[in-house]
Design a protein that fits this description.
Number of strands: 0
Largest sheet: none
Helix content: over 70%
Strand content: under 5%
Structural class: mainly alpha
Distance between the termini: 26 Å
Radius of gyration: 22 Å
Length: 276
Amino acid sequence: MLGKLISYEIRGLWKPALIIFAIMVAAGVVGMASLFGFNAISYDSAYLSDARATQSASLFMLAVFAGFILMAGPLALTILVIVRFYRTMFTDEGYLTLTLPVSTAKLVLAKFFVGFAVSFIGIFLALMLGSAMLSPLIEEPWTDCLGMILAASGGDLAAGLYEGLPASSVALGVVNIFVSVGYGLALAYLSFTLGAWWAKRHKVAAAIAIYFGISWLVSLLFSIVNVFSMLNNAYPYEHFAQFGAIMEIQMVCYAVLAVAAVALAIFLVRRKVDLS
């Protein structure tokens, strides 16, 4: 039955998700072409006339705009899956959803798995296209740029600067993004479940406040730890090493919090949320 629920979620999301993916790809192509043109005009001429300077500035601004569109794609996808979760669970449609002859755990897990897959693909696509966009401005190929971003996401800030790109650092970055997406989505599902349970009115506003409150507190905790790490290390490479260890601890904490958030959301939907 879980497979059927996942299939149903995919049917409900694939069309709008595909449109967003297409917009992201188009923005990435436009941005890359604009930066190639900007690079050709700016660096292939010893002197820029007013007309060529205007063209160069226009191409750069177009690339910046395309970059904003590209980076907005993962956010739009996340909002899409969260809106579907709330609409199918806690609005009038929720009456029909919760009367299905399946367990609450399967209902929530099906929505989480599909929503997670859509969000993760969106973020990874944005990183790939963004790295390709930057390739005209840097000497390294876009794959190296992507590897540096992934390694930095895993806590290896020195990767590609003082040494090559260790495969372990890149892999750890992918895992960290994987866990971070799961944590963010699980926290959003829990927040909207808490909003539906606690708030009598303005449930969505309450859910958004809960989400930002919890995420801010968790981020503040790790920010404080990072600040103390910087203050206690006189040399940058020492902080880089300690920052990587902190990132690994943070990744484990995010994974635990994600599992706990999904489990708590399932419990609240089953026992506490009343749609009557």
